[in-house]
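Support reply, case 0932

Customer input (verbatim):
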Amino acid sequence: MLKIAPNISDICRAALKAEFTGNFESGLIELAEFWDYRLPDAPPDISGLSKNEIGELLLRCGALYGFYGISKKELQEKSKDLITEAFSYFDETKNTFRQRECANYLALAYSRMGNKSNTEAWLHFSFDHPEIDYVYLHALIIESIVNLNAGDFAAAVRRLEFFEPNFKLTRNIYLQSCFYTNLGLAQKNLERFDAALENLLTGRDYFTKIDHKPYLASLENNIARLYQKKGNIKKSLEHSVRGLAITEELGDLYKMGGILDTMAQISFDQKAFPLALHYAEKAVAALEQTEYYAYLIEALETKIRCLVRLGRVEEALDGYARAFQFGERETGSGAVNARLRTTLATELREICILKIYREGGQLQFLDGLALTFAEEMNRPEGKISIVETGSNRLSEYGIEAGDMLVVESADISAIAEGDLIALKLRADGSAFYGFYFADWETKKIHLKYRYLPHSRVFDVRDVILLGRVVGFARFQSENQRSLRVVPLEI
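Our regenerated output:
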């Protein structure tokens, strides 16, 4: 029986439609007769195809594989190789239009791998054309994605707004959807919230027409965050729930984690800290199964904020250490960890933990992170580690060995707001903590102690302080009942 050869043009058109509707794996299945994406090292079957047909097949395989493995660099390498080979076939047939289309997808692949120079070079190739056609507009969309990922939001807005008339004239709904979405995202980051919300809602309407579920899920999440900023909690939750339902249908853990983090932040703003922690933990659990470390770090930050508010400081520090470790894996880890040092240290300052050892009659103040703090925890006395940033030495402020730092109240139910709290271990492993209002006029404070029978966390002679440092206290009598309090600014 004669085997009828499949119509390669029809198959490639179906694959492109799948790409434009977000059905990336379905698109790859459309191409399965020529290439099995589950066996990526096996070359596509190009027997009996013309050079233009080979180029079209390789382009569609490479483009879809790039979206399918969007967070995995090794898959982007394969995507790039397939599209580069397609480019060479189109070069032989002098098919400039398809070459420029290849250039767009190569720019996208290189941007996902963090290769800025090659990204810019391939975009320049696409833009080097006298007409503003489909490929030119597609290149503008990819350029806007590159600008968004680089944090150059002003450039994204400037370029997209300049070409807005062209996007409005195109009949390609996918390009129009991307235009309004990317413009809205850039405006959101520039805090042009009203314009951003209008454009994101328009982008959502367009993506709804083509049923692009992955992008719809992301849009619902971004719209929810904008309504959150505007204080419209009802609308924010409505869009979050809608987006979450889409991600559950898709099984998309990355987008699911992002939406759960949004729901955690909404609950946090409503001071529903236990519920916020519930959503944050689900967000972290989902994102841990992906390679989207930047989003995982954001979810961990939300979780840490919840733990801090609930007084679960040790767990907050563990989360801080994990966030820092994941930050090392993220592209641009220096910037990520610089942000962690700032945002998390600021958050933990509200319930700050200091671990102090005696050293030659002075207390040293060292910059550090929770990770450093944890590593120093079991070392012999003679060191100080501190979850804080700032000055170099506490001794510069006149603090002497034997002084006890005084802090504002931690968010602990047993202690009233405005109280002071300090915790100190004894040689037998037990501990005590004290609390009372300070008399700032007389510079005296009286601590009423409560006894804790055992602590498994800290070493003997450590002084653990919960709260924001506001001063230090010095015992004025041998019975250690009266303290002189000196205000301190760090």
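We compared this against your earlier run and they match. Two observations from our side: The chain has two domains: 8-272, 354-487. The mean pLDDT is 74. Please reopen the case if you see a mismatch on your end.
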